[in-house]
User: Which sequence fits this backbone?
């Protein structure tokens, strides 16, 4: 079973991103379930969403305590939430940031990092800092767990209107192609 925890802020689409990711995984023949978690339910408050994927049917609908991957769609949420809590050793971090890898404070558990300046790109595409579809592209590029084509199909099957769909498809594509992937421990050998 592959488990993902998505961190963001209310209004940024973390819950929606988990649902689209689940739909993309299902389109590729896997079982997947997106699990939203609601707390304060207000714009700007830290939020978390969860996703499980497996080759077999999934019965567990609980929060994910020990994720394989953490997706952080807001660069400031780590100031108020321990995004690395429970991350499995060798786990993956997909992070929106304008900072280089050397400037980040990472947990020793992190083995792979996908970095993208998603806020800047979102402002270019949407004129608002909504990074969820960008981060789905970054997730696909960093992990290889789901294909870009499957995510495009999941977006096309969603409830976006034509203009919104076009923008989100562009965001997904840029998220995939503009993500830098770093394999820690391999960087020094390169």
Assistant:
């Amino acid at each position: 079973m592959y488990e993902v925890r998505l961190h963001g802020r209310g209004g940024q689409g973390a819950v929606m991103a988990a649902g689209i990711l689940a739909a993309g995984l299902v389109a590729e023949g896997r079982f997947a379930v997106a699990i939203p978690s609601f707390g304060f339910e207000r714009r700007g408050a830290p939020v978390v969403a969860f996703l499980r994927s497996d080759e077999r049917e999934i019965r567990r609908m609980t929060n994910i305590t020990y994720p394989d991957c953490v997706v952080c769609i807001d660069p400031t949420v780590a100031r108020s939430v321990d995004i690395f809590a429970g991350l499995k050793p060798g786990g993956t971090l997909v992070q929106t940031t304008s900072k280089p890898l050397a400037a980040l404070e990472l947990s020793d558990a992190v083995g792979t990092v996908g970095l993208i300046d998603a806020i800047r790109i979102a402002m270019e595409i949407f004129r608002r800092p909504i990074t969820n579809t960008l981060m789905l592209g970054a997730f696909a590029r960093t992990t290889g767990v789901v294909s870009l084509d499957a995510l495009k199909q999941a977006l096309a099957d969603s409830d976006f209107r034509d203009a919104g769909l076009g923008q989100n498809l562009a965001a997904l594509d840029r998220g995939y192609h503009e993500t830098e992937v770093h394999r820690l421990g391999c960087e020094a050998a390169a």
The mean pLDDT is 91.
